[in-house]
Structures are given as C-alpha cells and as structure tokens.
Design goal:
The chain is built from seven helices and eight strands. The protein has one domain (39-236): Cytidine Deaminase, domain 2, CATH 3.40.140.10. It is of the alpha/beta class. An eight-stranded mixed β-sheet has the order 7-6-5-4-2-3-1-8. The chain is globular. Pfam families: UPF0172. InterPro entries: EMC8/9 (IPR005366), MPN (IPR037518). Belongs to the EMC8/EMC9 family.
Amino acid sequence: MGICCTFQYGRRVALNFYYKYFCSNLLSFMILKQPNTMKVTISSRAYSKILLHASKYPHKAVCGVVIARENSDSKIDVLDAVPLFHLSLGLAPMMEVALTQVDAYCKSNKLQVVGYYQANQCLDNNSPDVYAYKITEKLQENFNSAFILMVDNKKMGFECEFQACKLYHLQDNKWKYNEKDLCLADDETLSIVSQLMIGKAYPSLVDFDNHLDDLSLDWLNPEINKVVDNAASQVQE
C-alpha cells in the first residue's frame, strides 16, 4: 500500500513538472515568434487601392487585405491590396469565401496575405475594432507577423498631403500602434493618389462585394492597376 501511494505521488510530481516545463517553453516559443520590430513598406499600387476603396464608400466602413512576396517576418514589402467589403464586414462566412479565393491567387503567384486593412465609418474613429483583431488573428495562422492597417479618416482628402494609414502589430502579446515602422515605397505615392482622387478613379474600383453582385467584375482590379501605373509614369516625368 505504501509503495503504491509513493508511486502515485511520484507520478503526479513528474506530470506536474513536465506540464509546467511544457507551458513555460510554449509561452517562450510564442513570444520569440513575435518580432519586436517589424518594418512595413507599402507600394503605390497597394496604398492607392486602400485609399480609393475608402473614398468610394466614404459613408461606410470598408476592409480588405494586403499581400506581399514570401519573405522574412521583420521586413515586409507590401505589393498590392485586395479590397473586400463595404457591406458585410461582420459576416464571417463571406470573409471565409473571400480569403479562400485570395489565398488561392497568392499561392499560384508565390505571394501571401500579410495584413488586413480597414477604414471605419465614423470620422473620429480610426482605431481597430474587435472584428479587425479577429480577422488579423485568423491571418496570423498562416503568417505569424500579420498586421493591421487603419485608415486615418482625418487625413483623407484630394490633396493627400499626409500618409493616411496607421500600422498596428502584435508586440509582447499586445496590439500596438507604431508610426515609425510604416513607410511608403515611393516618394511619389502621395502625388499619385492625389492625381487619382482628382481624376475620380475611385468609382471604378471593385471590391469583393461588387464581385458578388456581378461576377464579371474582377476584384484584382487590373484596370485600376493600369491607372496607377499610368499616374506613376506621369508623376515621374
């Protein structure tokens, strides 16, 4: 009887030790996997689409994702943006359908979804909400350093004098705003977007909601891509 009790007690001690050891190392691994610093650079094409999306629906909240080539977690060069919704931001099934199609496109082009963007409906509300956090946490299942870009509504305008995006990323298990780690890839980006705004290019932008209404509309926005490229060439001349 004494031997049996001693054996059971020893087993409990051993299990307790291994449980604490496993949890401690798992927590350390999760913290190590989250980069303390992360530099994000946005291309003219991606930045233009984000602001055109917000400009097309100024009375509504809009959202989408940004994509980049497969690279390190500490430096991300955003190449493009995919506008998703202006009607159904809170509908999880529609988001699942959209992300599945975007992921398929990314895999076929050696790209990956690296972040989520959102512009809120209210002018003074420029912070992520619960929905933004949940979607980005979902994206982190495939890309650990997935981040949030929030459109600063107060900096929106045809003149585009200021960068109008705010970067939030997960640091020390908390979502933090970091102004210094976000930059535009080209010095001409703001001029390009201003030209597009003045030229009223935003009505032709297609998001996934538009695509669902008319499947002939391409959510990759090849026409917008051409407009951005043409504007870039004119600004550089």
